[in-house]
Design a protein that fits this description.
Distance between the termini: 20 Å
Largest sheet: 6 strands, antiparallel
Helix content: 25-40%
Strand content: 25-35%
Order of helices and strands: EHEHEHEHHEEEEHHEEEHHEHHEEEEEE
Radius of gyration: 20 Å
Number of strands: 18
Shape: elongated
Length: 320
Amino acid sequence: MVLELPRSETFDYDGAYTAPRGGKVIVIMNPKSGRDDEDQVKTALSAYLDELPDGELRLVGADPIEKMAKDAVAENAATVVAVGGDGTISAVAEALAGSSTTLGVIPAGTFNYFARGLGIPEDLHGAIDVLRTGTAQPAAFGRINGRLFLNNCSIGIYSMIRRQREEIYRRFGRSRAAAYWSVITAMLRLYRRMRLTITVDGTRHEMKSALVFVANSDYQIEEFGLEGSDALKHGNLAVYVSRDRGRWHMIKQAVRLVVTGMRKARDFELFTGRDITIETDKPFRHVVRDGEIARMKAPFTISRDDTDLQVIVPSRDHAR
């Protein structure tokens, strides 16, 4: 199966896609993602690729994911399938955006917000079935200083939470409970506030905060119980700036976020728009994009990007 939409498509008798002549499917699998059943995943992927006239499985190793995905595009792959968590999928998507290569997704991370938001099953065989029977649609994404994000990006304490999470994962294994616990422990140990100037569609806001969270995924926002999903559905980004009330208030926010959801007036300032600039009191900050940390230079320019990115999603006839 290869998809290359909105270009020509071919279907077999039961409505599933069949590989266009000369098409190639490259599956990029990150063995370090949340799944424990690596051998089972490899077996299922090999069986799927055996069905195709031209398919190949490549494991993430010495080469970065971004390079592997760029190499696949350079080889004129019609479809690149990302197997991993949101960070892996985001890295592959960045290489594919603007190209004629379609993105396939097999979620294998802890939260899998991108896949869940598109209706792609989290179970392995269900996700592979979407590759066989799905259709392709454009996916919206954002950019911060030119770098792509699918779900969100953040500046401030979340980068510390992310490092704390990896330490907890090493000790107790990957789970959503461990991820939530990392939020609380990081805030207890590492809370720092920032002086910020945030400009949203030309309007400036001066404030202090420990966290700026920019969302692109209305599915994730609805999961969190946050306001702003309607703005996202209409092509905007949502900027959440935590209110500066000290370390203990931030911990309470984290607990509410996990248990009951957060409320706008009490917990954060919400801004929505398409073009955002964030200036901070330091020339460099750690930025988290879809769970991956990188040190970036301020100011931070964030925007919605409409560059073509086609993603295989469940078709109406095969939706679960």
